[in-house]
Amino acid sequence: MTEAEWSASRDPERLLAAVAGRASPEALRRLACAACARLLDKYPDDWGVQVFRAEGCAVGGYVSPEDWPAALLREAIRIADAAASATGRSEEMRAIHKAAGEAAERLHQRFQHANCRLGDAATGAEVEVGYVGWHGASAARDCCGEDIRASAAGCIGHVVEALGYRSYDAGKPPEAEKAAMADLIRRMIPFPGHSA
User: Fold this and answer.
1) Where do the structural domains in the chain lie, given as residue ranges?
2) I need a labelling partner for 8 at 20 to 30 A (CA). Which of 46, 60, 81, 86 fits?
3) What DSSP assignment string belongs to 177-190?
4) pTM of this prediction?
5) Range list of H helices, the chain
């Protein structure tokens, strides 16, 4: 990738591939933390309640407002940031990675069930909170992956998916979220061959 391509790219996967072998694990971990923090900026703690309230619906039995894992994301960011600063403990990373993985699997199953039942008993709020919650928990899991070189792209991808839910819901890919994530990568990791 040339420097001009690096500067113009709106594709976070391509940018990460360009720096994957060169960026330090600490820089990749900090990038994953910053990406997860974007989720908390867009989706506050009570976001799930807001979605259900805005739709004027009760919980239909598949996904609840409490399935938005804001606390899990905050804890994953805290632990991963400590790991990036070399003050973290590996057992904390393994524990939050495991908890986030279990939450991601549970939310994925709930989202799939709600999505299959949409038009039957599930509500749009259940599908939205399930989808965003699943990708949020998956991002937290990947943020705390033991091998951040292998999991950073997954984290970024899940954040884009969660932030772009409304774009998908409108039948469009989340191009604005991809571009914003590409900008974040460029701010946090220099072009290969340049120093920070």
Assistant:
1) 27-188
2) 81
3) HHHHHHHHHHHHSP
4) 0.90
5) 3-8, 12-19, 25-42, 47-55, 70-84, 90-117, 124-143, 148-163, 165-169, 175-188
Q: What's the rounded Cα separation, in Å, for the pair 123 and 137?
A: 21
Q: How many residues does the chain have?
A: 196
The Cα 132–Cα 114 span in angstroms is 13
Query: What would the pLDDT profile of 71-119 be if each residue is shown by its tens digit?
Result: 999 999 999 998 888 766 788 888 999 999 999 999 998 888 777 765 5
**Is residue 73 a contact partner of residue 177, using CB atoms and an 8 Å limit?**
no
CB 94 within 8 A of CB 146: yes
Predicted confidence (pLDDT) per residue in 152-181, tens digit: 999 999 999 999 987 776 677 788 899 999
pLDDT tens, position by position, 114-155: 777 655 566 788 888 999 999 999 999 999 998 999 999 999
* Amino acid, res. 169: D
What is d(CA 179, CA 7) in angstroms, rounded to the nearest whole number? 11
